[in-house]
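Write out the 3D structure for:
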Amino acid sequence: MARVKVLELSALPSGQIALVSVDGEGVALFRCGDEIFALGNRCPHQEGSLSDGFVEGDIVTCPLHGWEFDVRSGLCMTIPGESVPRYEVTVEDGAVFLEETS
């Protein structure tokens, strides 16, 4: 996937989650202070929407069955070996760009 603009930074206040689409796939954006993290939106367990989840620190919890994922790495903290895709985030001129890393 090439680098793609997904939204304006002003549309994602600190502490909020946004759902965007990249190449037809849902991507959840998490803004923690000045940092933004991006993960594939579907939990591998039963495809719960991580953008509807709960964030505490660096962990997002799937709202369906409580699987936890590290927003920095995409690794599942509940079931070792499970993960969701992670996207590299850059901010330029007030816009948020994504590029898939895994």
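The chain has a mean pLDDT of 93.
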